[in-house]
Write a structure and sequence with these properties.
One of its GO terms (biological process) is secondary metabolite biosynthetic process. By secondary structure, the protein is an alpha+beta fold. The protein contains 14 helices and 16 strands. A 6-stranded antiparallel β-sheet has the order 4-5-6-7-1-13, with helices on both faces. Strands 9-16-15-12-10-11 form a 6-stranded mixed β-sheet. A two-stranded antiparallel ribbon has the order 2-3.
Length: 480
């Protein structure tokens, strides 16, 4: 974890004191947050995200920006009609946050969209300056890199423009209101022009009763202390043990930094071979890609014993995305790579680590942090995030005709020193890597995408080789 300046520590201490004595990322106990049953109540993951927002409301680290292009016979008016339907039905997107007695809750408000004089541009949740004819990419970047005041602003900004059979929408949303499970309802409504609703409700788990939840939390804490929260966990980028005191460690995760993002395509033929490898080692393709991230972390940093932080869905059956926003979870996983083991053995071991950790994915990260802090522990080492995620439009039903396309807009912030993501749409997969310059060594940053894509290429034919032999081949292919 990067060392904080004294000025930054002072600022964070003041913000924590102003917002109460809960540490960054913790959720105060609130029985209603476990299973909110009426609109306005926050779920437990939302309370965790809200605490982060309260500590630094000027941050744009949780702004998500997308540019959606509609081809074919879609008109500006038809896209605007879909947007108006969305904000009418998707209640968290048309709400502000109020705090009473320290407890946040949503209040639905009325906002009207506005047309430019030419009726070629329509905006919702934006000021007059966004109605002009500014170049689209410039506008998308500006809107994505502008903080939300969630006390007065709804967590959504929309700008629709275009003509001649091609319509463009800039969509910016705060992460408090959405997670990856929100996209089918949100983007499905925009693309189809019809309200999609909560399409995956029956596939989600029910909320456990209080006794079961307490038991699973205890088990999750024991797992943490045995693995990713143990005292001997080192920072993978430096190989050093944490140097901060336990008290200072709870502040350091709030030090957002400017970041750089790069992307690279993953070869289709390599992914097809990779699916066969997943069957051999007894893992899902997604789990196997997290295993690749662990091998990549070893190749890039030289640390065979490291923690990766993996995001996961934690939405319950009674938490429709239009009424309950962020339901994400954070699952730290501690990997130990043996260079003398075969690649197949290393991937099997990685899968075992992943599945043991995912047994506790139903317990939110906030209560685990609270328990660790109450025991006098430190904030866990969290330098590298790894994820496998669907592209926002993946699986979204589309009308006949030319498809809509979607691309993300980088908010300029790296939430972790190093983040690795495999993102898959309906046709291809690519890897995205973002990092914090000055924290991540230059040689690690420049090699990262090459190492990840090369590992996907090399692993299917290297299962009988040792990990050391695989990394030697990798070094020849992607020199340091």
């Amino acid at each position: 974890m990067p060392t904080l300046t004294e000025a930054r520590l002072t600022l964070l201490r003041r913000r924590i004191a102003e917002s109460g004595d809960a540490a960054a990322g913790e959720a105060r106990p609130d029985p209603s947050a476990q299973n909110p049953d009426s609109f306005g109540q926050f779920g437990i993951a939302e309370r965790r995200m809200w605490k982060i927002y309260e500590l630094d409301p000027e941050s744009v680290s949780h702004n998500i920006g997308l540019v959606i292009e509609f081809d074919g016979d879609r008109t500006v008016e038809s896209v605007v009609a879909a947007a108006e339907l969305l904000v009418e039905r998707f209640e968290v997107l048309s709400s502000i946050v109020e705090v009473e007695a320290g407890v946040p809750h949503r209040v639905k408000v009325r906002r009207e969209g506005r047309w430019a004089a030419t009726r070629s541009v329509w905006t919702w949740g934006l000021d007059d300056a966004a109605v002009g004819s500014t170049e689209s990419d410039t506008m998308a970047t500006r809107l994505t890199r502008t903080p939300f005041d969630l006390f007065t602003e709804v967590p959504l900004r929309l700008r629709v423009s275009g003509g001649d059979g091609r319509v463009s929408m800039i969509l910016v949303v705060h992460h408090l209101a959405v997670d990856d499970t929100s996209w089918p309802s949100l983007l499905g409504t925009l693309v189809s022009g019809e309200w999609i609703g909560d399409v995956h409700a029956e596939a989600r788990p029910a909320t456990p009763d209080a006794a079961t939840a307490a038991e699973t939390t205890d088990a999750a804490v024991r797992h943490a202390l045995d693995t990713w929260a143990a005292d001997d966990v080192r920072h993978p980028l430096s190989g050093e043990l944490p140097a901060e005191s336990a008290a200072e460690s709870w502040l350091s995760p709030m030090d957002d930094r400017e970041g750089i993002k790069v992307a690279a395509a993953v070869a289709d033929e390599s992914l097809a071979a990779f699916d066969r490898v997943a069957q051999i080692v007894g893992a899902t393709p997604n789990a196997l890609l997290i295993g690749v991230c662990s091998l990549a972390a070893f190749a890039l940093t030289g640390s065979p014993d490291h923690v990766l932080v993996v995001p996961a869905d934690n939405r319950r059956r009674t938490q429709p995305p239009q009424r309950i926003g962020y339901c994400g979870n954070i699952i730290p996983m501690r990997f130990r790579v043996d260079p003398t083991a075969t690649v197949e053995r290393a991937l099997r071991d990685a899968a075992s680590v992943i599945y043991r950790a995912m047994e506790h994915s139903g317990t939110d990260f906030g209560p685990i942090l609270t328990a660790l802090r109450q025991r006098g522990g430190r904030f866990p080492v969290m330098e590298i995030m790894a994820s496998v995620r669907p592209a926002p439009l993946r699986g979204v039903a589309r009308p006949d005709g030319p498809p809509a396309t979607c691309r993300s807009v980088f908010n300029g912030i790296a939430n972790y020193p190093l983040s690795i993501a495999f993102e898959t749409d309906d046709h291809a997969t690519h890897v995205e890597v973002d990092h914090q310059p000055g924290i991540v060594p230059d040689h690690v940053a420049t090699r990262a995408t090459g190492v990840l894509t090369a590992l996907v290429d090399l692993i299917p034919s290297a299962l009988g080789s040792t990990v050391a032999e695989l990394l030697a081949d990798l070094e020849r292919r992607v020199p340091a």
